[in-house]
Amino acid sequence: MPTVALPMPSSLPVARNPILREKTTSVSTYCRICEACCGLIAELDGDRLVRVRPNTAHAHSRGFSCNKPQGLVELTYDPDRITTPMVRSGGPGEFSPTTWDKALDICAAKLSAVRDEFGPQAIANLRGNPPFFESAGFLWGLGFSAALGISRNYTINAEDGASRLTANEALYGDVNRFPRPDLWHTDLALVIGANPLIARSTRVSEPQSREALDSVVARGGRVLVVDPRRTATAERYEHISIRPGTDPWFLMGVCKVICENHQMPKLAQRGAAISGIDEFVLLAKSFDLDECAAKCGVEREAIVDVGGAFTKAASAVVYGGTGTCAQRFGTLTNILQDTLLALTGNIDRPGGLLAGWAAIDLTPQTPGVKSGTRRSRAEGRPEVGGGLPSAGLAADIAHPGIDRVRALVIRGNNSVLTSGGGGKRLEAALEKLDFSVAMDLYMNETNRYADVLLPVTTMYERDDYPVTTGNMQLRPTAYATRAVISPVGDARDAWWVFDEVSRRMGLGGSCPDKELQALAEARGERPTPAEVIDRLLARGPVKGLTFEELVANHPNGIRLRDTLPVGKLTENLPTEDGGVQLYSLQLRSEVARLRAYAEPDATWPLRLIGRREKGSQNTWMHNSRLVYPDGYTFAAHIHAADADACGVEDGGEVRLVSAAGSIVVTVSIQDSMRQGVVSVPNGWGHRGGSWQRANAFRGSNSNELVSHEDVEAVAGMSILNGIPIRMERVTS
Ligand SMILES: Nc1nc2c(c(=O)[nH]1)N[C@H]1C(S)=C(S)[C@@H](COP(=O)(O)OP(=O)(O)OC[C@H]3O[C@@H](n4cnc5c(=O)[nH]c(N)nc54)[C@H](O)[C@@H]3O)O[C@H]1N2
Ligand SMILES: Nc1nc2c(c(=O)[nH]1)N[C@H]1C(S)=C(S)[C@@H](COP(=O)(O)OP(=O)(O)OC[C@H]3O[C@@H](n4cnc5c(=O)[nH]c(N)nc54)[C@H](O)[C@@H]3O)O[C@H]1N2
Ligand code: SF4
Ligand SMILES: [Mo]
Fold first, then answer.
1. Do 237 and 348 belong together in one domain?
2. In this structure, is residue 32 part of a structural domain?
3. Within 10 A of 314 (CB to CB), how many other CB atoms are there?
4. pLDDT tens for residues 371-380?
5. Is the Cβ atom of 65 under 6 angstroms away from ligand 3?
6. Per-residue confidence band for 678, with pLDDT thresholds at 50, 70 and 90
7. Are residues 203 and 342 in the same domain?
8. What ligand 3 atom has the least distance to the C-alpha of 201?
9. Which atom, in ligand 3's list, is nearest to the CA of 66?
10. Beta carbon of 66 within 6 Å of any ligand 3 atom
11. Nearest CA among 571, 525, 545 for reference residue 470
């Protein structure tokens, strides 16, 4: 791995030195709400955070930030936030305040009791999205699980990107071989099932996703956006409207066009070594272009055009998102995304797909990690990349047996609203636990069933370094932050909570670095997150970098490289012959399934898809007045022709019905919608959380329309997009 010398203290204009914090009102920090992790300047009045703004000089975000961090300033001081430890004093959601000491003792005693009687497998973690961006909580969480012997981790991966991981396994032999699209140097970008102008970045950490895509066009290239809805991203570039859930037909059509071009064999040789190419070419050629076009609802000419564009482009990438993961053929779609790049020689090549690179890279280094070697106990859902599907948790708690889940450690998760088809089932199951503890900013629809609720810090109240997103950056940088304010009320950091509970259980601290822990304990102290970060930095490719050095001397971060390394993505591939596998077992089984799949009959004429609104963050930004002003209306977007067919007018109410359930929503007629498609924002349906504004907005939970049983075949992902539904007018 190349070594990078530490640049001199920032050559970029320095905002304000945080060391001078007491005397100034502006300090540098960074946002940890989503993958982008943008640099921010926080304006303080004493110890009170007043405002945040983008850091125009930041090496990573270069002046971008959205409105969410300002929304989080409001949430930090929100009276609805939980800032005192609480214990259950009655039914769900009924809590009384207590002290940290008492709350931690209860957690230690109850977890010990379950562990002593039923063994560590009776305790499980339930982790949501926000904990991914909190490095110390992430690291101490690993240490906590190791100390207690917890091996069951339920996560939101099966609603997010598990099928990307199973595609990595099919193609590169390892769920952790993660390709990153070299957006800054490519000549052609196909954005499929993603909306980076609103969601900013997924599976990459790139605040400037719009500028990156604009740069493709500026270089004379093209940006093609495949989406059933004319999103902000589709609007800005070239839109290809597709029928939801049919992406493999579109991508296979594109592959066929590429394979039929006589230049293809020569093109394929430009990139990494590929296996199964002849077999794949035969398969692609066996598809009929007219059938592909009919199935995906994209004109044949458009498919031919895209195939031609990939053949001609000097370099090309595909950028996929949740729209292509959380659907019926998620794994196959992801496999085909990379396949068309393999066919055109764009794997492990500048401007194509490359491996990530970071000063701290925590990607597991064990080669050949497979999915599904472990499964959820009751329903046999696959574990992918260390995560069991949160939708499988309810059955693992409720289904009788000696190996039931009996205790749960919940952190930053709201699966009652976010897991596919599992919400009500999970609510019933949570009541059957012997014990559960939750760490959150709010009491939400899920943790209101916990026995103990622990108030944890917001990103403004803790030190951090982007440990988990570093490897996702397209232009590697390093930066860190100290907490910019003291915790509000009694809020404490999650890492400290983990450490306290494992110590009180008599199992030692939860610091993941045992050597460091021993050294600190010899001094009568406990190790800090900054010390762990320093040790991880010291093991990385950048020499001389420390947490304090970054905080004190590099408030705008440091640029480490302008490019990602070439050759690393396919270096020592743990596949049979070391090549990228184009004709994997997964591809073959999924193509057979695709061909056999019959769309449901006319009882279900419409298809449901999700929508991420500007400023939303899954379930938890709805209490912010800035992001969700008073006039906000929760609405399903529909096409005018579908409204006519249903006899509903703009602003009217409809019942959306799927085979799994039904919800009532207000409709908004939008010309951005494709006919036959209904789009409903995800993460709503608040009831019973402490967030009163969120509860007051009328909003339904689209996951009630998601099937619990009918899941994606390889990764076990919930099918959240392309759900067959019908729409009925509600007459009051
Ligand atoms: N239908 C449908 N369902 C979906 C999706 C979809 O597109 N459509 N998207 C899926 C995706 S991609 C994801 S990632 C999941 C998200 O699913 P979840 O992670 O379950 O939900 P979130 O709303 O992100 O956050 C959960 C909780 O974290 C808390 N929180 C916020 N900040 C912090 C913090 O700093 N520390 C702690 N401890 N807690 C904090 C919030 O208050 C909230 O209660 O939803 C999935 N569900
Ligand atoms: N504002 C905002 N930003 C967010 C979040 C948020 O909740 N709000 N959540 C964050 C999280 S946790 C994540 S994982 C990322 C997700 O990042 P993205 O995946 O980029 O986010 P989405 O907006 O859900 O984009 C999915 C797109 O797929 C389209 N789509 C739906 N079905 C299909 C289909 O069958 N085929 C195709 N081709 N397209 C389809 C949808 O119309 C939508 O435009 O965003 C992050 N950023
Ligand atoms: S894009 Fe994501 S990381 Fe950047 S400011 Fe918005 S929420 Fe924060
Ligand atoms: Mo996500």
1. yes
2. no
3. 14
4. 999 999 999 9
5. yes
6. very high
7. yes
8. 1
9. 6
10. yes
11. 545
